[in-house]
Amino acid sequence: MATTIPATRSAATATRRYPIFLAGEWVESDEPVEIINPFDGSVVGVTFNASHEQLERAISAAEAAFKITSTMPTYDRAALLDRIATGLATRRDEIVRMIAMEAGKPVREAETEVDRGVFTIRTAAEETKRIDGEVIPLDLLASSKGRFGIVRRFPIGPIAGISPFNFPLNLALHKLAPAIASGNPIVLKPPSKDPLTMLLVAEILEQAGVPKGAVSILPMSRAVGDRLVEDDRFKLLSFTGSPDVGWNMKQRAGLKKVVLELGGNAGVIVDRDADLDFAVNRVKFGAFAYAGQVCISVQRVFIHEDVYDTFRDALVEQVKTVKMGDPLDHATELGPMIDDKAAGRTRRWIDEAVVEGARVLTGGTAEGRFFSPTVIENATPESFVCSREAFAPLVTIFPVASFGEAITRVNDSEYGLQAGVFTNRLEHALAAFEALQVGGVIINDVPTYRIDHMPYGGVKSSGLSREGVRYTIEDMTEPRLMVINRLESQAVSLG
Fold it and tell me: Using one digit for the tens of pLDDT, what is the confidence trace for 316-332?
């Protein structure tokens, strides 16, 4: 499984510069940033961190654009999103390659991400047609005779979005597409490690005709990005990232709405009657997709003791077949971690777990940014590989005496994003749905499953509110009530 990281390649041509997208204009700054390919250390491109002054221009432009976006008719918003989706589909191969190069994501997974991105935008185009309200009868008391209410949803104003490195396209689109659909401007901070993908998308936005000021895509330092959190002109902050950072942002966000998707240490239950071959293959996928750098990556698996040995042995054999290599090679299943820091942290956590009594069944070795897929048993629940979000290609496995014990063990976590349950017993599926303290229970699949229109988010330290296009639109709009009093004197005679 080991692979050798190539030496840094010298570019045959000048490195491309990627200006940043400020309210419909392409600009540079005094802070250029080289974007490095995690696979071989080569420079993918050069972009720029926005300055304080440039962010101020973007915020002011978003405020001004709200007068336009908030009054755009439904058909205009839907048509705009359709053009963006078509543009993304047309440039699919280019953007797939960019994701693979700047994020180190295997090209097969990058293809899936771009296809999901097109789906996310097209779903937003449809949902913009379904931002509905309701009519409420108010004459439930005699004093309200002749009255009824009409509720409509209205856009709330400029949105601040901060997206993570692991899905540089689609998780950013989960902020951008609903903002356009709901009539709100957005200032988006793409991930520092791989911002070029969304700057290519900005070209598509411009060509599709996004109103000036309605979208800004600005890489920026944390010092500048703090304005996104603290500036009261933003009416909603949408952040996807680490729990420590996210909850700190909420404390500083003031009166604005806050949507947090913060990850976790996702658990899986394997019941005694589960289809073990299927469960093994899905756990292998869920644990090692994008080198485990996924918020819903499988991290803890609780297997009924009657089938534990069989499951363990089959999983270890399957994991040994995982192919590591160049993300641009279609045969590659596991590429590099995002940087040396991530690989080093993983190594330390595994070493600490072994000192505490854990046993590494396969993997556990690193070569540069490549970390071999790792299966661990007998780890203590308090060890970092169990209790914290590993965000790495490792999975811990445990035998349990009963289905009830497995539920208790999954719930023994500060996180609660999603959980997977492999069982053929309906009563166990229903019990898990009722008892697991998570935002989503996935029956007969891993918690890594997601489709982009479903409500997605967690409880406890895993987040606040839900993503999924319709649910994000609800956060980006507010209901407003109009009460109508139909006076008897205004009654029309039908005689």
Answer: 999 999 999 999 999 99
- 93/107 Cα distance (integer angstroms): 10
Residues with catalytic function: 261, 295
Return the pLDDT at 6: 42
Asked if 380 contacts 386 with a C-beta cutoff of 8 angstroms, the reply is: yes
Number of residues written out for the chain: 495
Tokens of 60: 């002011």
Strand 257-261 and strand 236-240: the pairing is: parallel
Mean confidence (pLDDT) of the chain: 95
pTM for the full predicted model = 0.94
Distance from C-alpha of 193 to C-alpha of 101, rounded to nearest angstrom = 11
Residue 234 CA: distances (Å) to CA of 63, 117, 228, 413 = 9, 25, 7, 33
Low-confidence ranges of the chain (pLDDT < 50): 1-12
- Cβ distance 418 to 438 under 8 Å? yes
Catalogue the long-range contacts made by 483-488 (C-beta closer than 8 Å, 24 or more residues apart): 483/138, 483/147, 483/148, 483/149, 484/147, 484/148, 484/149, 484/150, 485/146, 485/147, 486/146, 486/147, 486/148, 487/146, 488/146
Secondary structure in 3-state letters for 56-78: HHHHHHHHHHHHHHCCCCHHHHH
Q: What is the 3-state secondary structure (H, E, C) of the chain?
A: CCCCCCCCCCCCCCCCECCEEECCEEECCCCEEEEECCCCCCEEEEEECCCHHHHHHHHHHHHHHHHHHCCCCHHHHHHHHHHHHHHHHHCHHHHHHHHHHHHCCCHHHHHHHHHHHHHHHHHHHHHHHHCCCEEEECCCCHHHCCEEEEEEEEECCCEEEECCCCCCCHHHHHHHHHHHHHCCCEEEECCCCCCHHHHHHHHHHHHHCCCCCCEEECCCCHHHHHHHHHCCCCCEEEEECCHHHHHHHHHHCCCCEEEEECCCCCEEEECCCCCHHHHHHHHHHHHHHHHHCCCCCCCEEEEECCCHHHHHHHHHHHHCCCCECCCCCCCCCECCCCCHHHHHHHHHHHHHHHHCCCEEEECCCEECCEECCEEEECCCCCCHHHHCCCCCCEEEEEEECCHHHHHHHHHCCCEECEEEEECCCHHHHHHHHHHCCCCEEEECCCCCCCCCCCCECCEECCEECCECHHHHHHHCEEEEEEEEECCHHHCCCCC
Q: How far apart are CA 15 and CA 438, in angstroms?
A: 45
Tell me the domains of the chain and their CATH numbers: 20-262+462-479 (3.40.605.10), 267-443 (3.40.309.10)
Per-residue model confidence as pLDDT tens digits over 200-219: 999 999 999 999 999 999 99
Tell me which residue of 413, 408, 409 sits closest to 459, measured CA to CA. Answer: 413
